[in-house]
Design brief:
α1 packs across α5 and α3 runs parallel beside α6. The protein contains eight helices and two strands, in the order αβαβαααααα.
Length: 221
């Protein structure tokens, strides 16, 4: 618990340094992950009804899953959770998450996947954090904390404090997943001109990513 508290505090500082306007979002209680026990709510014990301010409360930690999918503390890489997030791009996200999960379970994620300890750009982490972050498991833990806390600040009236909620941030998440898989993130053409003048991203822009990943992995063998 202490480790997560330290990582989340660091993540909060990182997020508010990069996006200071998030600190002025709608007010929300820090104990928003605490809910009443069933016996203490309406229809429960007479004591709870007589003294509602003294209701016993039960604390629940948020989903702490790397990329919202894999337990960050597991060294065996044999467990994933799919569908434990909220977004508006469900069909595309499901296909991409399934491909990511397959690559993860078979140790086929890109060798240069962009964790916090990577020297390559990561849209979720600042330059200072990347350079200072120790390598190995600590990078997985910190990226998980950063991902979770960003949801808490970005969607204070949503579900971000409990599980991944990125209704308005699907594109950065997809970029992160594609980077982990070693696939291109600019999918509108071969230059920035395509990205600038080809309109918004649509599901069709990700057509063929499974075949693209399979071809990439054939070359690695």
């Amino acid at each position: 618990k202490k480790t997560w508290e330290e990582l989340e505090k660091r993540a909060d500082n990182e997020i508010l340094e990069r996006f200071p306007m998030l600190a002025d979002g709608p007010g929300i209680e820090e104990d928003d992950r605490v809910i009443p026990k069933p016996e203490d709510v309406d229809g429960g014990s007479e004591k709870a009804a007589a003294e509602p301010e003294k209701q016993k409360r039960e604390e629940h930690t948020p989903w702490r899953l790397f990329r919202g999918i894999a337990p960050p503390t597991s060294s065996k890489k044999d467990l994933v959770f799919l569908g434990m997030m909220l977004s508006l791009q469900t069909v595309l996200r499901s296909e991409m998450a399934a491909l990511w999960a397959y690559a993860y379970l078979n140790n086929r994620l890109h060798p240069q996947m962009q964790l916090s300890d990577s020297p390559q750009p990561n849209p979720m982490v600042s330059e200072k954090t990347r350079l200072d972050e120790p390598s190995g498991m600590q990078g997985w833990l910190y990226d998980t904390a950063l991902f979770n806390r960003f949801g808490r600040w970005r969607y204070p009236m949503g579900y971000g404090a409990r599980f991944p909620d990125f209704v308005f941030d699907g594109l950065p998440y997809f970029d992160m997943m594609l980077q982990d898989l070693g696939l291109k993130t600019w999918r509108k053409g071969r230059s920035w001109l395509g990205e600038l003048f080809s309109g918004p991203y649509l599901p069709g822009d990700y057509k063929g990513m499974v075949e693209e990943w399979r071809g990439l992995n054939m070359k690695r063998k």
